[in-house]
Design a protein that fits this description.
The structure is a single chain. The chain has 147 residues and is an alpha+beta fold. The protein has 4 helices and 7 strands, in the order αββββαββαβα. A 7-stranded antiparallel sheet has the order 2-1-5-6-7-4-3, with helices on both faces. β1 and β2 form a beta hairpin. It is globular and about 50 Å long.
C-alpha cells in the first residue's frame, strides 16, 4: 500500500508542477469528460485557464463538481500523485481573468514589469476549492528505513 502525503507535501508536489493536471467534469450526457490542463496553486485552490467556450467550462456551468489528478513516475516505486475533488467556480469577467493571468505569470517567474496588463479576449479561469485530497507515494515505500 502506498504512503500518503500530508497537506504540506501535497502542496509542494503540486507547486513542483510535475506536468499537466487531468481535469474531469461531467458532460451534459452524464459521462465524465477528462482533459489535460495547465494549472497553478493559489493558496488552497487550484486554478486552471483556457478558452471560455471550452467544453470543460460549459460542463462546470452545469455541474461545478470536478476531479483533478496529477501523477509523476514511470515505475511503481517512483509513483507519486494526487487526486483532488472539489467545487469549481468559473471566472469570465475581464478583471478576474487579468487577476489570474497575473497570478499565474508571477508563479512562472515573470518579472513585475512584464506582467499582463489586459485580459485576453475570450479567456476564462476556473478556481477549484479542494474538498477532498487523496494521495499516493510509492517512493516512500521504496525508501530504506532510517536508523
Amino acid at each position: 500500500m502506498a504512503a500518503k502525503l500530508d497537506r504540506a507535501e501535497a502542496y509542494a508536489f503540486l507547486d513542483s508542477r510535475p506536468g499537466w493536471i487531468s481535469m474531469t467534469t461531467i458532460g451534459r450526457d452524464g459521462y465524465p469528460h477528462t482533459v489535460p490542463v495547465g494549472y497553478f496553486r493559489l493558496d488552497d485552490k487550484i486554478v486552471l485557464g483556457g478558452p471560455a467556450h471550452s467544453q470543460r467550462f460549459r460542463n462546470i456551468e452545469r455541474t461545478p463538481r470536478v476531479s483533478l489528478m496529477v501523477e509523476r513516475g514511470r515505475k511503481r516505486e517512483e509513483l507519486i500523485g494526487l487526486m483532488l475533488q472539489g467545487d469549481a467556480t468559473l471566472h469570465t469577467r475581464p478583471e478576474e481573468v487579468l487577476h489570474f493571468m497575473r497570478a499565474g505569470a508571477e508563479r512562472r517567474g515573470v518579472p513585475e514589469e512584464q506582467l499582463p496588463t489586459e485580459a485576453f479576449a475570450g479567456a476564462a479561469y476556473v478556481s477549484v476549492e479542494i474538498r477532498r485530497m487523496i494521495s499516493w507515494d510509492y517512493a516512500k515505500d521504496a525508501e530504506p528505513p532510517s536508523t
